[in-house]
Amino acid sequence: MAVALLGGVLALGLAGRWMPPAPAWVDVHAGWGVLGWVIVLLASVARVVMPMFQGTAAVDARVQALWLGSAWLALLGAGGGRLAGADGRWLADAVALHALLFVIAALWLQWRASRQRRGPLVWSWRAGLVALALAAPALAFGARGGLLAAALGLGIAPLLLLGMAMEIVPFVDWIELHRRCGRGVQLPGVQRLLPDGDKFGVLLAQLPLLLLPAAVLWPRPWLACAAGLALLLAWLAAWSALRGVRRRADDFLLKVEYRP
């Protein structure tokens, strides 16, 4: 909530309806938004859903608490230092370090998991984690590195968030089918609501997102337009696949209703 409110105040400043935002406050907002909101949220959710959907071991609660505490302390210290007049290097380093620790832990857990569970979700998360591992050190290379990290971040979101949505959405729809049909009706399996072929199709649709970092490294108008189109198509592919879950569930309900 604090990150969102600070972002709103900064946006008002850019629009000329508030005092112009100071660069230090922009840096603090970015640091807290990336690490204190997005990465902490991913790490917290991953501790629950990775064992559930990817067959990994669960992270020890004490290790998770240590990482979380370190992240908050680093953000408070580096953010306070930035507001006191220090440059943004310490804040960027804090974000990069804790992001890399999360990536290393998640990839290690995936590596040790059963190979039988290495489906589309695992590959989607693995690609997203590798992109995050590349984005983190890019923060150390000034404004250009920040743009590269942001471009990689746009590609990370579909890989991690949509990859998880491909598992959660059909599971939720299956629960809804169970609630509406009750006992005595054989329901389609979760995998039939969203087959692996559709999931891999969504994963393959993320490959053109490589144009995002390319547009930063080699700035060209046509390349920027192509990267934007690739991002749009990636989200459209995910929407189409998730819409298919609802369509299959509705088709099953129609068959149940018209069954003699």
Account of the 3D structure:
The protein has 260 residues and is mainly α. Helix content is 80%, strand content 0%. It contains ten helices and no strands. Helix 5 packs antiparallel against helix 6 and helix 9 packs antiparallel against helix 10 (221-257). The longest helix has 40 residues, at 142-181. The radius of gyration is 21 Å and the shape is globular. The mean pLDDT is 82.
Largest sheet at a glance? none
How much is the average pLDDT? Answer: 82
Number of helices: 10
Radius of gyration: 21 Å
Indicate the proportion of strand residues. Answer: under 5%
State the helicity in percent bands.
Answer: over 70%
Number of strands: 0
Question: What sequence of helices (H) and strands (E) makes up the elements?
Answer: HHHHHHHHHH
Measured distance between first and last alpha carbons? 53 Å
Q: Return residue spans where pLDDT drops below 50 for at least 5 consecutive residues.
A: none
Question: SS-based structural class?
Answer: mainly alpha
Shape: globular
